[in-house]
């Protein structure tokens, strides 16, 4: 889930969704705290999809600059 949240911050909602789908398959109903975190991450993916292209590009540039 952490990877998915990082991908969201980098403006990569499609990659984040793929990560979350992998996580979802591993969660059980008894993992209440993890399920809550999953829901939060999923909402972040959906919110990121609503961003305009300029904001997504800004996030990608910021993430790239942080790496260097």
Shape: elongated
Low-confidence stretches: none
Helical residue percent?
Answer: over 70%
The amount of beta strand, in percent, is under 5%
Q: Output the radius of gyration.
A: 13 Å
Mean pLDDT over the residues: 90
Query: How many helices?
Result: 4
Number of strands: 0
Q: H/E order of the elements?
A: HHHH
Largest sheet properties: none
Distance between the first and last residues' Cα: 24 Å
Structural class: mainly alpha
Describe the structure.
The chain has 68 residues and is mostly helical. Helix content is 78%, strand content 0%.
Which labels suit this protein?
elongated, mainly alpha, 4 helices, 68 residues, single chain, 78% helix
